[in-house]
Every structure is written in structure tokens, then in C-alpha cells.
């Protein structure tokens, strides 16, 4: 399958971002693999090459507009106009609410919220020129349920849900769809490996209707569909991929 489409995927060095990158590459989409530094992107670049895809590493901090602008320019110069954005980069936080400092708040919101805004803004001119675009925001099921001890993280992901709904209305007339995937518990990510033990994962799996913890490909499958022509009538939606943790 061939396509002239180009995507930028943030937080793409591992986990969900890497899986989304590979899935999109298999559809013939050229990928900008964005993460904090170029070296971190090597494994994802290899996986894309092994799948027969095309990709370029984009070192950038999503909360730094100048770095993002340079990354988008590099991607555009390499493969052409960018019309797909997967805003996956994020940081988690387990600071008890009463201990949250302003500095910690700003860091979480700068990456999780401002980063998504900056990346989307920097790519928007290409989407408008093409009269076609796809934005997929990766939030968290914690935004839907809340999560004790994660007030700042959960609220930052809640902001992504609201941003998705608003941008869908604002950008829809321009041919751009904007949707949101709030993952449930997903193993194989940097966050899960650091915070969920195998014992905890087994315990969690027993609470889910599907009786298993998710994998990055579960999210990537939904992401790939949302970036496809087949989803052109879907916008402003929260597509829960959580094994039934949240039902609607």
C-alpha cells in the first residue's frame, strides 16, 4: 500500500508512540518519529524500516515551540507536507494533591497539554492547505474516572479531552478530524514498566471484563483507523480502548 501522507508521532521512541508509528508506516504513511533526542528514536526507526516503511528521527521537546518548529520543518523537507498528528508524548505524576508545587504543575501541563497544542498548531498550515487532516490525541482513562493520587496528571488529560472536542468543531469545516483515545492500563510502555509490577498487572487484569492488560498495539490499531479515510465521519470523539475499564 502506498500513500503520499506524512505523519508526526510524538513520544514515539517506545510504547504506544512506537506502536502507532509502525502501524501507520505499514499503511504507507511516512513517519516523523519525535522524541526528546535522536538516539532514543533508533529502535522505532528500525522497526519501521523492518516493516518496509519510511521514517525520520525528530529530536524535540514538545513543550518547546522552536524545537517543534524545527522538527516539523525537517519532516516536511524530508517527506513533504504533514497532515497527520498523533499527540502521544506525555509524563505521568503521582504527587499527592496537597504536595503539588506550581513548578510540578507547570511541568506536567507543559508536556501533556501545551505540547499537544504546539505540535498541532505547527502542523495546521499543512492540513489547511491540503483541506484534509487527522489529529489523534492520546489521553488517559484517568481523565474519565479520576485517579486518586494523580490529580494533576488526570486533570491534564481531562484538558486533552476538552481540547479534542473543541478543535473538532473548529477544524471540522477545514476537512480536519480530531479525536481522542484514552488508554486503560497498557503494559509495554515506559510509564507502565516504571509503575506497574507484574503482580499488579495480573491483579488489574482480573478486574477488567476482557481479563487482560492492554498492549501498545491495541491503541495503535484504533489510532490507525482514526487516521484513515474510513473514519472521515468520526470527529470530536473519545474512543475508549481500555478493556472495559470505562464503559459508555
Topology of this protein?
Layout (H helix, E strand, L loop, with lengths): L5 E5 L4 H12 L3 E6 L6 H9 L4 E5 L5 H15 L4 E4 L14 H29 L2 E6 L3 H4 L5 H21 L4 E6 L8 H6 L2 H8 L10 H11 L22
Parallel strand pairs: 1-2, 1-4, 2-3, 4-5, 5-6
Helix pairs in contact: 1-9, 3-4, 4-6
Outline the structure in words.
- With 248 residues, the chain is α/β, with parallel strands linked by helices.
- It has a single domain, classed as NAD(P)-binding Rossmann-like Domain (Rossmann fold).
- The protein has 9 helices and 6 strands, in the order βαβαβαβαβααβααα.
- Strands 3-2-1-4-5-6 form a 6-stranded parallel β-sheet, with helices on both faces.
- Strand 1 (6-10), helix 1 and strand 2 (30-35) form a beta-alpha-beta unit.
- Helix 1 (15-26) crosses helix 9, helix 3 runs parallel beside helix 4 and helix 4 (102-130) runs parallel beside helix 6 (151-171).
- The longest helix is centred in the middle third of the chain and has 29 residues, at 102-130.
